[in-house]
Amino acid sequence: MKVQEIGSRGFLFTFPDFIPYPQVPMPIQIYVINGKNNLFICDTGVKKEQLDMLKKHLTDKKLLSKPIIIFNSHFHMDHIGGNGVFDSAQIISHILCWEMMIKTTQRIKKENKARLEDKSIAYPTIIFQEKLVFPEDNVEFFYSPGHSKDSASCYDQLDKVLYVGDNLVDPIPFLTWHRIDKYLTTLQNYNNIDKRVTILGHSLVLNDSRLINKSINYIEKFRDFDVNITEFTPRHAAWYRWSFINIGLALKENGKKKEALEYFKYIKNVIRDPKIEPLNEEELREIEDFLNKELNNK
Ligand SMILES: [Zn+2]
Fold it and tell me: Strand locations in 101-206, DSSP E?
């Protein structure tokens, strides 16, 4: 675990070695703001142990005297794993994040009971729709859909630090929601926020808007099925192929079957391109089996 001080009251905790897909190890970043009245913790990582380590550090630094407020940027499991570590904490999220957390844990419970038991999930206790502001702390949380339907961001007005969860990912965006128009609006809105530092949910701390603009360009190309893949690394390829699959699934879930098939068809045609193909046999088989099933079931 690495700890880095940011601005006048921020602490960035970085944990290595989370592997969401084969060959794509990713760090986890958790951002803590020591506000006037409250201590804010933005996201809680994959494993309970990560937040246990963070808790120990905050205890040693005598930073645990204020009420603790946890913020979940979205419902994905790598952002809520340590929600239960602070017994007394309030947990803030967008209303859709809360709904999707409940839905997902119910589904996992049905599929594999054991897997859930070692994840002591604690659900949000305060939910908001557009914005939630702590005026005395100069901290605000706002709805910013994009990476997922429920994504939200945190803004420290005093230090001008923006925490974006997975709306920005290195090196290209990872799309899981079909409303690409709304994702673009969110990123354009980030460009209008007065900020010194932007912190991502996995890696990178940004001091300028280059990655935001690069991400906007990529999403526009992705929307038009016109991404240039010649410079792709395995990490680009992983986000790219799974973005197609996830958007297809989201379209299908929303009754847009024909549009979903376009996404599935497109990725099926390029999945064995050396620039796109998973290096891992098992992943390749999983994707091909899935796509064959979807495309034969029309
Ligand atoms: Zn994530």
Answer: 126-128, 131-134, 139-143, 152-156, 161-163, 197-199, 205-206
Protein residues with C-beta less than 5 angstroms from the ion ligand 1? 78, 166, 201
CATH superfamily of 2-221: Ribonuclease Z/Hydroxyacylglutathione hydrolase-like (3.60.15.10)
Which amino acid type is present at position 98?
A: W
Q: 97-149, pLDDT tens digit by residue?
A: 999 999 988 887 777 655 544 556 899 999 999 999 999 999 999 999 999 99
**In angstroms, rounded to a whole number, what is the distance separating the alpha carbons of residues 141 and 128?**
9
CA 146 – ligand 1 centroid, Å: 13
Q: Tell how far the Cα of 78 is from the centroid of ligand 1, in angstroms.
A: 5
How many angstroms separate the alpha carbon of residue 260 from the centre of ligand 1? 24
Task: Write the single-letter amino acid at 40.
Answer: F
Structure tokens at 81: 């794993």
Domain regions of the chain by residue span: 2-221, 228-296
Query: Please, are residues 141 and 132 in contact by the beta-carbon 8 Å criterion?
Result: yes
Strands 126-128 and 131-134: unpaired
Mean pLDDT calculated for residue range 226-241: 94
